[in-house]
């Protein structure tokens, strides 16, 4: 199985804003985490098209996932995790950590 991680500028900004609440590693800054994400992922430019997200500010996640043929979106947002009409599977960070463990 090939595993690719895709990001765009909006997702990188969201990671930067939220990583202090989700990833707690002493001595690691949000900037370092974003830089690591950039190094492990492919940056993609999207054209906004999807407009059915339960949280409109997250429409870009679906644009990114659909454009790249992604199998899953990883999110902690309850509105997304319970989005029954999602065109892409949405799984939580716990699933991601268990499926792709990384030693820190």
Beta-strand level of the residues, as a percent range? Answer: 5-15%
User: How many distinct beta strands?
Assistant: 4
Estimate the global geometry from the Cα principal axes: globular
Could you describe the largest sheet, including whether it forms a barrel? 2 strands, parallel
Q: How large is the count of helical segments?
A: 5
Low-confidence stretches: none
> Radius of gyration in whole Å, from Cα?
14 Å
Distance linking N and C termini: 24 Å
Run of helices and strands: EHHEHEHEH
Instruction: Let me know the average pLDDT.
Output: 90
Largest sheet: spatial strand order: 1-2
The helix content is 40-55%
Q: Which structural class is indicated by helix and strand composition?
A: mainly alpha
In short:
The protein is mainly alpha-helical.
Q: What order do the helices and strands come in, and which of them pair?
A:
Elements: E1 6-7, H1 9-22, H2 30-40, E2 42-43, H3 59-68, E3 72-74, H4 78-81, E4 89-91, H5 93-99
Parallel strand pairs: 1-2, 3-4
Helix pairs in contact: 1-2
Describe this structure in words.
This protein is mainly alpha-helical and 104 residues long. The protein is 44% helix and 10% strand. Helix 4 links the parallel strand 3 and strand 4 (89-91). The protein is globular and about 40 Å long. The model has no long low-confidence stretch (mean pLDDT 90).
